[in-house]
Specification:
By secondary structure, this protein is an alpha+beta fold. The protein folds into 2 domains: 2-103, Alpha-Beta Plaits (2-Layer Sandwich), CATH 3.30.70.580; 106-255, Pseudouridine synthase I, catalytic domain, C-terminal subdomain (Alpha-Beta Plaits), CATH 3.30.70. It has 5 helices and 10 strands. A hairpin with an 8-residue loop joins strand 2 and strand 3. The longest helix is centred in the first third of the chain and has 13 residues, at 26-38.
């Protein structure tokens, strides 16, 4: 029997998704919990590997097993053995033809950013941070230059194992949400800067290693007025990692999951989607 699971996790305590021998990973924790639940070894394949510190709103995995359990039992039973920062959100039996990675038509990521003169505290490891005001129009203009099929070598980490740097971005949407006004801090000069949250939504057929974090680095240089929006086209055309900005922090990056065809009957979101700013 082939099962598919939707997994949400906070990536701060893990060295990424993929199993590693000497450091904790999300895959290792999940496979250990699944194996304990059914009392037999379980090996999983995922829709998209995430880096160290990156979170998952709906990672999708599949695995084969002889264990027969109701879908709800796969959720509750596995969660009983998982650490608190990882949880199975849903489970479905799927045909043998289903493959979590190969059947994914698109993949989605969200980057959440705090713009504030004061670094995050409660949101530590959950959001990225900038202390300068950002220009939304300039960032969106630059982001639009990346839409379509391109060679994204300029945004590719040196350790990337992808067979080709050519990927297709379908959309990058940038939204701004003001933070709650602090009425009692009107005379505190540290709070004269208007704090807000930014949400960057990416959707593409696939992504290179560090691709989104490298794009974020460029977008933020443009948003802070350090570079013009047209600079993004120059970076893209250079096809060289040296042309782009430094890799931005992983803290605010969330894998919001793959998009599958309706024939598989799988959910396309979890409650964790509604938790983000």
């Amino acid at each position: 029997m082939r099962m598919a699971l939707g997994i949400s996790y906070r990536g701060s305590a893990y060295a990424g998704w993929q199993s590693q021998a000497t450091v904790p990973t999300v895959q290792d924790a999940l496979e250990k919990a699944l194996s304990q639940f059914v009392d037999q070894p379980i090996n999983t394949l995922c829709a998209g590997r995430t880096d160290a510190g990156v979170h998952g709103l709906m990672q999708v995995v599949h695995f084969d097993t002889h264990a027969l359990r109701p879908d709800a039992s796969w959720v509750r039973g596995t969660n009983a053995f998982l650490p608190r920062d990882i949880a199975v959100q849903w489970a479905r039996q799927v045909p043998q033809a289903f493959h979590s990675r190969a059947c994914a038509l698109r993949r989605r990521y969200v980057y959440v950013l705090l713009q504030s003169p004061v670094r995050p505290s409660l949101e530590s490891h959950s959001v990225g941070w900038v202390f300068r005001k950002l220009n939304q129009d300039a960032m969106q203009e630059a982001a639009n230059l990346l839409i379509g099929e391109h060679d994204f070598s300029s945004f590719r980490a040196s350790a990337c194992q992808a067979l080709t740097p050519v990927k297709t971005l379908y959309q990058i949407q940038i939204h701004r949400r003001p933070a709650r006004a602090q009425q009692d801090a009107q005379h505190d000069t540290a709070h004269q800067f208007e704090a807000c949250y930014w949400r960057f939504e990416f959707e593409g057929n696939a992504f290179l290693h560090h691709m989104i974090r490298n794009i974020m680095g460029c977008l933020l240089q443009i948003g802070q007025g350090l570079r013009p929006a047209s600079w993004m086209a120059e970076v893209l055309a250079a096809r060289s990692r040296d042309a782009a900005a430094p890799t931005f922090a992983p803290d605010g990056l969330y894998f919001s999951g793959p998009v599958y065809g309706p024939e598989w009957g799988l959910p396309d979101r979890t409650p964790a989607f509604d938790w983000l700013p």
